Amino acid sequence: MLGGLRDWVPDILFFGVPSLAGALLFIWRGETLRRRGVVTRATCVNQARDAKGLVTLRLNFEVDGTHYYCTSGIVPWIVGGIATVLLLLAGISYI
Prior knowledge:
alpha+beta, 3 strands, 48% helix
């Protein structure tokens, strides 16, 4: 069933590994700031309302001289999850 996936393994590795690494970096950076309990001021640089009426804010803030942008915290988890599943399936296709 996963034998046809073998043809896509180079592409999955090429896009999956950097995507997973980037997602983990964003998650790690956000969690580090939360653990440290850094208090800072943020500026709202954009807002949007989806079909359900939920408002999403894009915030700009600075910590220790580094500028950060914060939107929805679920995006890195979704990207990381998809990359992980694809990499696992690619690995399983060789078993």
